[in-house]
């Protein structure tokens, strides 16, 4: 007798466009239990359902597909060729669902779950590492997905569910988002060492109204804040160069290409002098944002509460 080759797997397209998969899903799982055990009564016991109910479920599945899946032999059953085809696809689908369920459970595990955390580029060198180090003392196995981006993009990803929490400035004013202030950061005016004001310690922002500025691109929070402070000082900045990171802008300042409002440098940059701005008060609020009303997994809630507990201590003040 020639050996019967394995049938090709059955695809969802083979079920027909009229098939309601939402209805079929439990029937498919029940069919798989019967097929594995080759015994309806044992499968019913395993599933915790009456045997007649399970038999009717499999019969309805066969009627829906228009094909026999099981051949009854006394108290046992065997798979037909169509049944073997379907079982292969069902087994793969159930395995994928189990992997998804396990990933979902791991995501919410308070000990080893994951936090998707977005933050400003300027927070990545000191503030965020310090936060993570402090949090990991009590939660050493929680995993983090870290995203650095400009504010508008981060808030879009926050709303889409790609991020759980965002460290932002300025704080969003939107009904669908909750934002809590954490700290204030002074912005200094960075000028080249050979600038006419480089010998000063303090200036008014209006004194550089005619100077070329280097700034981050539009859409970045720091750009919004810079434009706002300049407007408060009575002028619109003439942007000569745009960049994406504070250190890039410092390099442009050092090269004599303009002045910039920037957070204090962690390490003094050669060729750059930082001046305190006395008018207006150039400080930016930094806070934590999340989607209003969206349930937080235990690790996300724990990290949010930890970050909020650092209010007033997020940044070094001078």
TrEMBL record:
Top-level taxonomic group: Bacteria
Domain spans labelled HTH lysR-type: 31-80
Kindly indicate whether the keyword DNA-binding belongs to this entry: yes
Q: Which PROSITE patterns match?
A: HTH_LYSR
Select a single GO molecular function from the record's annotations and give it: DNA binding
The Gene Ontology CC terms held by the record are: protein-DNA complex
Q: Which UniProt keywords apply?
A: DNA-binding, Transcription, Transcription regulation
The UniProt entry's sequence similarity note says: Belongs to the LysR transcriptional regulatory family.
PANTHER family in the record: HTH-TYPE TRANSCRIPTIONAL REGULATOR CYNR (PTHR30346:SF28), TRANSCRIPTIONAL DUAL REGULATOR HCAR-RELATED (PTHR30346)
Q: Under which name does UniProt file this protein?
A: LysR family transcriptional regulator
């Amino acid at each position: 007798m020639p050996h019967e080759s394995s049938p090709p797997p059955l695809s969802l397209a083979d079920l027909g466009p009229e098939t309601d998969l939402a209805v079929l899903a439990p029937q498919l799982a029940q069919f798989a239990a019967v097929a594995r055990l080759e015994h309806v009564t044992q499968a019913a016991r395993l599933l915790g359902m009456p045997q007649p109910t399970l038999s009717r479920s499999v019969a309805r599945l066969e009627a829906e597909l228009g094909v026999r899946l099981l051949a009854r032999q006394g108290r046992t059953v065997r798979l037909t060729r169509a049944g073997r085809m379907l079982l292969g696809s069902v087994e793969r689908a159930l395995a994928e669902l189990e992997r998804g369920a396990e990933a979902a459970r791991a995501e919410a595990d308070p000990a080893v779950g994951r936090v998707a955390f977005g933050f400003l580029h300027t927070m990545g060198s000191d503030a965020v590492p310090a936060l993570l180090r402090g949090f990991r003392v009590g939660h050493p196995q929680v995993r983090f997905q870290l995203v650095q981006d400009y504010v508008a993009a981060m808030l879009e990803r926050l709303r889409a569910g790609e991020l759980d929490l965002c460290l932002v400035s300025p704080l969003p004013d939107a009904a669908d988002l909750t934002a809590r202030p954490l700290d204030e950061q002074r912005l200094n005016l960075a000028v080249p060492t050979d600038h006419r004001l480089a010998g000063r310690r303090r200036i008014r922002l209006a004194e550089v109204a005619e100077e070329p500025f280097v700034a981050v691109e539009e859409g970045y929070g720091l750009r919004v804040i810079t434009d706002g402070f300049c407007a408060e000082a009575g002028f619109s900045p003439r942007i000569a160069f745009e960049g994406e990171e504070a250190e890039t802008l410092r390099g442009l300042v050092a090269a004599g290409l303009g002045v910039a409002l920037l957070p204090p440098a962690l390490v003094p940059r050669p060729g750059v002098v930082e001046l305190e701005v006395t008018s207006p008060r150039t400080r930016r609020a930094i806070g934590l944002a999340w989607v209003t009303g969206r349930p937080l997994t235990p690790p996300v809630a724990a990290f949010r509460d930890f970050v909020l507990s650092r209010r007033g201590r997020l940044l070094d003040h001078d």
